[in-house]
Hints:
By secondary structure, the protein is of the alpha+beta class. The chain is about 20% helix and about 40% strand. The radius of gyration is 16 Å and the shape is globular. Fe (ii) ion (FE2) binds next to loops.
Amino acid sequence: MKQLDLFNSSKTNIERKEIQNGQYLHISDFFDKSTSDNYLQTLLNTIDWKQEKMNMYGKELLFPRLTAWYGDNDKPYSFSGITLKPKQWTKELLEIKRRVEIKTDVSFNSVLLNRYRNGNDSISWHTDAEKELGKNPIIASVNLGATREFQLRHIHTKEKLSIQLSHGSLLIMLGELQHFWQHQIPKTKKPVSERINLTFRVIK
Ligand SMILES: O=C(O)CCC(=O)C(=O)O
Ligand SMILES: [Fe+2]
């Protein structure tokens, strides 16, 4: 990644963290409010959202969130016990992708979208270390809608970190982070409105 573009903008609010076994960058104001509002509304209406099911010990379990998978090629992608075929990029997804690519200097070929309808929707502890992503994947994650807490937990030391991901923010995870840290969006009792998260990935 070019360090240059990541640090030369005076207007952006960047937190760069070198943590044990990994790195992340958090840009809380990546998109301004009106751009973020527009993307949120458009994605709520145009993305083909589904509530997927997975099989656990012979029982069908519904994911506690809606998901969608878009990308360049027709390679199926497996995560959380299910396999999805990507849909074709929409205009807005390509626009967001382009802006993330300018920031990171990485060409992403796919995006996984998650939609958390309320505080009862969540994603539990996991890593994004699927073999299709290569050794030390860079994952760029765009947040729209309600602010939710993103937690990281080191698999050996159990150290925990917490980041509030708000409307229009970008979180970039890189280095060996996916091999040492799990992450989750826990459920919350606070009344929260909808949130959409887009994780841009490079499928090899
Ligand atoms: O919603 C988020 O911020 C995280 C989503 C996530 O971890 C994933 O899709 O793998
Ligand atoms: Fe993840």
